[in-house]
Amino acid sequence: MSAPSLDSICEPISVDLAAVEKKLSEKSASQYDFVDSAVQHVVQGGGKRLRPILLLLSAKACGHEGEDAHTLAAVVELIHVASLVHDDVLDEAPRRRGRETLHSKWGNKVAVLVGDYLHARVLSMLVDRHAEDPAMAILARTTQAMCEGEVIHAYKSGDFDISTDDYLKIINLKTGELITASCAMGAIIGTREEKIIQGVTEYGKAVGAAFQIIDDLLDFEADEEKFGKEPFNDLREGKLTYPIIHLRGVCTTEESRQLELIFNSKVDEEESIEWIESLLLRYEIQPHCRCIAREYADRAKSALTALPESPAKEALGHLADFGASREW
Ligand code: FPP
Ligand code: MG
Known about the structure:
Strand content: under 5%
Bound molecules: farnesyl diphosphate, magnesium ion
Largest sheet: 2 strands, antiparallel
Order of helices and strands: HHHHHEEHHHHHHHHHHHH
Distance between the termini: 18 Å
Number of strands: 2
Structural class: mainly alpha
């Protein structure tokens, strides 16, 4: 049975998502025209809004109804957008989601500063909440972890021998922590029951891993039209991701040496790409990665057992399935 679409998963929070969109444009707006066009270029950049969706569903599944979830959902999305703006500078990426990246359009200076600006907006939004829950502390820790993840990734970039553990540590810091924080904060504003908060946090960790492994896989399948970026981008950037790390371990020594040579000279020749594609096929890397992502999705769903039944809990389950089976 195929996983439900993202739109149908979001049914229980459709009104909330519209409120978050409104908050995103209102809270990120700048009174200065140029600043505002640069900011809106990225805030309205066509993302899936995965983190707000996770936060809203987690909050609803834990009994929270109200505007505070909208604020926190907008906050996690703004942190995510800011981090991508900086990530694209680091990666020198020309396009994201089919659009020019901010630094390609207006230069590195504007991009770095727009990332900082969004971050400042996040701080103001958190201060305005006057809430006593630990959202501020969680997000301070999360942002630190994201920066640490990017630093380690930059340091390890170009390292063909990176271990699976190092790789998992990096993706957990870079991507997993914000996804986990989104779920945890949703739970915290909805309930005081420690067992439930812990379950939803576990769910977030596992869902983050499932999404990331599929992200890595889709990098090999990406076409400009569907994803707004070229395939094999990670390898071009000198990043070994889960599929190649696994391939490296199962292919012959000769193939691994050849892979390393291609990796070191950076992949750009058609022929090299075709050769790697044939290896990925021969060693059944795609079904293997899908299977690992599936395991994470199942782990995520099991973590929700303490939660009372509700449409939002069901949607969280479907979202985990979507994360493991998605094609985009
Ligand atoms: C995308 O990774 C990047 C991230 C998920 C996190 C980036 C984090 C920072 C730049 C540090 C934190 C900065 C702020 C302002 C909070 P990727 O390059 O693997 O994925 P991609 O293919 O989508 O670019
Ligand atoms: Mg990147």
